[in-house]
Design goal:
Number of strands: 10
Distance between the termini: 22 Å
InterPro entries: Methyltransf_16 (IPR019410), SAM-dependent_MTases_sf (IPR029063)
Order of helices and strands: HHEEEHEHEHEHEHEHEE
Number of helices: 8
Protein name: Methyltransferase like 21C
Radius of gyration: 17 Å
Helix content: 25-40%
Organism: Cirrhinus molitorella (mud carp)
Strand content: 15-25%
Pfam family, one: Methyltransf_16
Keywords: Methyltransferase, S-adenosyl-L-methionine, Transferase
Shape: globular
Mean pLDDT: 82
Length: 263
């Protein structure tokens, strides 16, 4: 989840965070290199016991169990992007449960507003090549969580990049270079002033051939207004709704040229 402050891409300007690689690398060597990618994905998922709880809490961190792996997330209370939100947990559960329908193996995946990195970590464990993005101030903790939970475990090493929603996306991520099979978003819609920029960014990355998955906990009237605008610019399917948590998971694809409405 992105924060309300928009300091710009000063982290990249200082050279601390470079632009992400647009070209998927060769898969990493793993301890299970005798298995091909699909067999390894099945083997990892088979380790998860159906009775195993998904979340444990402790002060300053949360422990999750997805794809047969323990995932430890370091949190903070200083920014919105430093805590795990309900939509992120719901999307991870959905990806794990529906891994055959939502096949992330060897896919290029972009996460918008990655926050603590839980969704990007699970996507990486499912075999995707992930680029996790958020505001510059969030990247240090995001990179820490991704590194310690994916090193030596994943088919591809995920990468972290600064991404500010809005017009500069076209400059920083030219469409001639950056293309993704999936765009993932979890709880990126909340009470902030950048919903138009967010929708513009979703549209920009969700090209023909790209699938966008968005999980959101409905909190404010602005959430419902955004959902209506979202429906106006994408072809969407409501994949799952959990009333007790007020979380909805949508699948969206780009409309054909001429069918898309202005927001």
């Amino acid at each position: 989840m992105e924060t309300e402050r928009r300091p710009g891409l000063h982290v990249q300007k200082k050279g601390i965070i470079k632009q992400p690689d647009p070209v998927k690398p060769s898969p990493n060597n793993t301890d299970e290199e005798d298995l091909d990618g699909e067999d390894m994905q099945k083997e990892v998922l088979s380790r998860r016991n159906s009775w195993e709880p998904s979340v444990f809490y402790s002060l300053g961190s949360e422990t999750f169990f997805f794809t047969g792996q323990e995932i430890s997330i370091r949190e903070s209370l200083d920014t919105f992007g430093a805590v795990v939100c309900p939509g992120a947990v719901a999307l991870c559960r959905y990806l794990e449960k529906n891994w055959e329908q939502i096949d992330l193996l060897d896919k290029a995946v972009l996460e918008l507003g990655a926050g603590t990195g839980l969704v990007s970590i699970v996507a990486s464990l499912l075999g995707a090549w992930v680029t996790a993005t958020d505001l510059p101030d969030v990247l240090s903790n995001l990179n820490f969580n991704l590194s310690r939970n994916t090193r030596g475990r994943c088919r591809y090493t995920p990468q972290v990049a600064a991404l500010v929603w809005g017009q500069d996306v076209k400059r920083d991520f030219p469409s001639s270079v950056y293309n993704y099979d999936y765009v993932l978003c979890a709880d990126v819609v909340y009470h902030h002033n950048f919903l138009e920029d967010l929708l513009m960014t979703m549209q920009y990355f969700c090209k023909p051939g790209t699938t966008l998955l968005w999980a959101n906990k409905v909190r404010f009237q602005s959430d419902l207004h955004f959902i209506e605008n979202f429906k106006n610019v994408f072809d969407i399917t409501l994949l799952e709704e959990t009333p007790q948590e007020e979380v909805r998971i949508y699948q969206a694809t780009a409309r054909k040229s001429g069918q898309q409405h202005d927001v």
